[in-house]
């Protein structure tokens, strides 16, 4: 299990900060976790799963 910081999530998904939080609010992106008392982080496996689902959506549309 590996956690990603916001910048790492942004780099991996190519989404900006505001887009990530808009998608979270809409229930369309994995929520973050509070780690070490105050830091927000995402599980890499959940972000990877989200990316794979988006790739599969693109394949079925095209």
Automatic annotation (TrEMBL):
Q: Spell out the Pfam families in the cross-references.
A: Phage_AlpA
Q: InterPro entries per the record?
A: AlpA (IPR010260), Prophage_regulatory_activator (IPR052931)
The protein's name in its UniProt record: AlpA family phage regulatory protein
- Upper lineage ranks? Bacteria, Pseudomonadati, Pseudomonadota, Gammaproteobacteria, Alteromonadales
